[in-house]
Design a protein that fits this description.
By secondary structure, the chain is mainly β. It contains two helices and eight strands, in the order ββαββββββα.
Length: 128
């Protein structure tokens, strides 16, 4: 089976899930090169759409993802990276997961978690 990189201009969504708890940590994008590097090194690597380059998760923060297994969806256009989170959090805003807000029935958004690290200290002068 080949991954279908054609639907999103050479990218596929990569859902990242903590392998032992099942917690969804983040969503990123991979191109062919990022996927190949992830499989080679077992350190999850993404393609940054804003920076137009590869980035290894944690290269600035130290909060890395070690690949446990990589699953492919039925359409072969999305991957699920089951990982071991090495560090305190996945989110550049200081939370364990990027999904730290809940949408209420009235449309309001409420935080459902507390930060686990100070992003100002971690990213001081660096782009997250």
């Amino acid at each position: 089976m080949k991954i279908d990189f054609d639907k999103l201009n050479g990218l596929v969504p990569a859902v990242v899930q903590e392998s032992t708890t099942g917690e969804v940590l983040m969503l990123g994008f991979m191109n062919r090169e990022a996927l190949a590097e992830t499989l080679r090194s077992r350190d999850v690597t993404f393609y940054s759409r804003s920076r137009q380059k590869l980035w290894k998760k944690g290269e600035t923060s130290g909060n890395t993802f070690r690949l446990v297994e990589l699953l492919v969806d039925c359409d072969a256009d999305t991957v699920l990276a089951r990982v071991e989170l090495r560090g305190s959090g996945a989110c550049h805003e200081g939370y364990r997961s990027c999904f730290f807000r809940r949408m209420e029935p009235d449309g309001q958004v409420a935080k459902v978690a507390e930060p686990v690290f100070d992003p100002a200290a971690v990213y001081a002068g660096k782009r997250a």
